[in-house]
Amino acid sequence: MDDYQALCARIADLQKAKTPLVVAIDGPCGGGKTTLAFKLHKAFPDSVIIHADDFFLRPHQRTEERLKEPGGNMDRERLQEEVLQKVPLGEPFTYSSYDCQQDVMVPVRYEPRSLVIVEGSYSHHPDLKPSYDLLVFVDVDADTQLDRLKMRVPGKMLPNFINQWIPLEHRYFDAFHIKANSDFVLT
Description:
This protein is an alpha/beta fold and 187 residues long.
């Protein structure tokens, strides 16, 4: 059984005892977090994906102090308050997705599902971990990561990833031992 099949088996097993089951997928940019989330969504049709990117800090939140925190460039408080605290209640609700291109908050309607997949960088932050039932880390080697980013990120933005975002992710991974504290590590 490969790692993905083992993960699916573990999710199916955990769902027998708890619903909704909340799975968080973290890892480096370009690692395959979103791809894995969509693959799991296809395997478990009664699921929903919550993207951590929807909780990117808004400009007024990007203070020097906040950005010094490992994992500080995600609005984890809003993710916790607007989504993770409400999921166990089993009721529909609306949360706000931050569109950083337009600098607007967009309402997103959540309908209860048996599996909730939270995917994205910083989703395993210690402040959020108590809300999860299973932690998955998707890893990637540096060369593959760079190749993937070159295909997906506009050329002028690539240096930001190399010089800013990737080092911030590594600082967060190291500070909180994210990979070591995950239930599953997929490569």
